[in-house]
Amino acid sequence: MNNITLNNIEQVLGAHEPELSQNLTKLFAKLLERNQDPTFVQNYTGAIKLRFTKEFQTRMGREPFSFSAFGRACYAAGIVKTFLAIVTSHLYTQSQSQPKERYIGQYNALEALGHFLKTGNFAERRTVLEEMKKNHAINICLSHLNHPLCIFRHLAIDTLRVLASESVLGENSSVTEVADIIAAVCGFALEGPDFFVEGMRSPNTTWQSQMVMGATDVPSKRATEHIPRFYAMAQESALWAAHGLLCTTPPPSRKHCLDILKKKPEILDLLFDCAIITRPPWYPETQVDSIACEVIALLFQWPSHIVPGVSTPQDNAFRAQEWKAITQAVAILTSRDDWCEKIIEVWMKIEEEDWREVRGWFDRVEVDYHASEPLDEDAFVQVFKYRGTSRIAMLRLVGTLSHAAESCGVTNAEIESLLRMAYLASRKVKSASELDHSKPEDRYMCTERMEEIFRSPVYTISLSMQVDASLQIPDESIMGPTALARLLVVLAQRKAFDTIQGLKKAPNGLSSSTCLNHVQQITNPDVIRRFLKIALQRVKAGMDKGRERARKADNDYARVAFMSAAELSAALVAFDSHTQGQYSKEVLGARKELALALGNAAEMAIREKRWQQALSFGSGAVNVAENIPAGEHLDTSIIAKNKRRVEQARNAISAK
Fold first, then answer.
1. How far, in Å, CA of 413 to CA of 152, rounded?
2. CA–CA distance, 300 with 343 (Å, rounded to integer)
3. N- or C-end of the chain: fewer Cβ atoms within 10 A?
């Protein structure tokens, strides 16, 4: 087409090949012409963005993603380089003297690239990401977090989220880049909505409301009421961007995470600050706090072939590499000011939240803040899932740091400060069959305490890819007792129980969230005995859950259930080892359950051909069996079966 004008947009973009490619090549050159009409740029970038949006919406959940003929032609014609050049041309000034059409054109161009990437398959998404990085997209997004228009700050966050969650930015970035992005997005999430509110109030920038509300002529009052909600959605996207950088497949090495923390240790402070962001009435369904907790868990997670507390013949390699990195990362955590209080503060924020007040916000958010649609009961129940996620992520962190308590100089007072939250997390929760349906709080608590984390990269969901979950944390019924048992192990190792019982005043450094009375109660021998019996019951319940999942061929979910049961068993065995038989009666059977759990985890790994996991779990099971007292009655056929599993895994690894 010789003439590309404002009046023939549909003909230009709707042409067939080879004319389409010719049109796009001419169009992209024309968009970058000096003194080009801003309305021309605005309308063409908007039309292209709309085509990608419709493509994504049409295909989502119906057919596999891959570039359409239009998408392929756009890529070949250089859409990435062209649109990023549009975004950075006529750079904004504080005077905001540009016509709004130019800003809208730049906004359309950057948003279009995010929509374009999402229409692609895995390889195409990676290619677009690499092209965007080559053309400085990351620096553009980071600089736009200081843009004088709030819509560009929002879009910069959204673009980083797309690159990190819908593609593989985390795998394609240096440690420095990952650290810089996490720090920047957390900083954005902690700023609050004031800048956005001012953008809706100022006469020079109220026009942004058309981008925010998706309509023109929005009254300033309505836009100003809605804008905190718009900001809160970007807050959530900001944390998803951080999450996507670390939730990769395969998961990042422990050294990679350590290097991120070494580069910018203040990331931990920022993430904990995000984890205690108060739920806002304008966006009560937020999960910004729970995503922050998951990001913290990702930074300190264990390799997928390791059950914490279980030693195997392969330990030497693990201890030389991964374990060393984990302990150094924990040392960075414990060197931060008030690190222990921050963990407790996340927990207390959830404990102190009034669900009835939150329910009221849900009922009013459409009227008060112009939510696009009312929030239903399902959305409200999700809040308790998010709360559950935060709780188990913090318990996971407590369990992990207990293994490094000695090398990282964690004090007795810090261990004692964490006892209460782990103790509360070990309480019985009514099962679905025991609920009193006249008490909604029972149902909500059940939802919260039964939440598990099986998190895969976001792009694997939209692309229907089967991968091992990058972050796996069991529900509170297992994670709570595991955290408490591990804290008790540390105190037992230090022979601290008698000292605690003899204290007359709270030790220096004990958190204000607890008191000496709580600490003495939790470490009282009778209370410990009751807890150990409950913990062993939870191990058996975890084993039953694993077997049920195995029967349904949910092998990965079953494996995690068995691994979790094994970790709790290992903590009980460790406690028994450090208390000179004082509690042997209560933990009788824990070693047998540990051998069974590890053997079953190995079997699930074999079924999914995860040979390194199978070797590690199987070897652990064989190791445990060698030290089991006769009174635990472990069947010799189980021992033989575990040896066969180890041999099968070894052979498979050798054959690779």
1. 47
2. 14
3. C
- The residues, ordered by sequence, that sit 6+ positions from 323 with a Cβ below 8 Å of its Cβ are 254
Give the pLDDT band (50/70/90) at residue 64: confident
Give residue 233's identity as a one-letter amino acid code: M
Confirm if 400 and 326 have CB atoms less than 8 A apart.
yes
Encode pLDDT of 350-392 as tens digits.
999 999 999 999 999 999 999 988 899 999 999 999 999 999 9
Task: Scan for tokens 């001012």, then name that residue.
Answer: 198
Could you tell me which of 72, 71, 89, 75 has the C-alpha nearest to residue 31? 89
**What does the alpha-carbon distance between residue 502 and residue 82 come to, in Å, rounded to a whole number?**
73
Contact at 8 Å (CB) between 213 and 262? no
- Residues 103-151 have pLDDT tens digits of 999 999 999 999 999 999 999 999 999 999 999 999 999 999 999 999 9
Q: List, for residues 242-254, the tens digit of each pLDDT value.
A: 999 999 999 999 9
Strand partners, 471: 455
Asked whether 124 and 468 are in contact (CB, 8 A), the reply is no
Is the model's pLDDT at 90 over the cut of 90? no
Cα–Cα nearest to 420, from 353, 494, 480: 480
pLDDT at residue 321 tops 60: yes
| Residue closest to 82 by CA, chosen among 10, 132, 153, 12 | 132
Q: How many angstroms separate the CA atoms of 430 and 160, rounded? A: 41
Is-contact 85 36, C-beta < 8 A?
Answer: no
Cis peptide upstream of residue 308 (ω within 30 degrees of 0): no
Task: Tell me the C-alpha distance between 116 and 75, whole Å.
Answer: 9
Is-contact 479 310, C-beta < 8 A? no
Beta-strand relationship, 471-473 and 453-455: antiparallel
Distance CA 120, CA 108 (A): 19
Pairwise CA distance, residues 248 & 164, whole Å: 9
In sequence order, what are the residues at sequence separation of 6 or more whose Cβ sits closer than 8 angstroms to the Cβ of residue 284?
Answer: 358, 361, 362, 365, 375, 383
Inter-residue contact 563 to 604 (CB < 8 Å): no
> Which residues are 473's β-sheet partners?
453
25 CB contacts (<8 Å, ≥6 apart)?
77, 78
Stretch 516-523: mean pLDDT: 96
What is the average pLDDT score of the chain?
Answer: 94
| Secondary structure, 3-state, 126-178 | HHHHHHHHHCCHHHHHHHHCCCCCHHHHHHHHHHHHHHHHHCCCCCCCCHHHH
| Cβ–Cβ < 8 Å for 568, 510 | no
Place of tokens 């261990």: 415
Counted residue by residue, the chain has a size of 656
Residues 6+ apart with CB under 8 A from 479: 392, 395, 396, 399, 425, 473, 564
Distance CA 282, CA 268 (A): 27
Q: Evaluate whether 210 touches 230 at the Cβ level (below 8 Å).
A: no
Instruction: Find the range with the poorest average confidence among 274-283, 478-487, 619-628.
Output: 619-628
Phi and psi at 531, nearest 5°, equal -60, -45
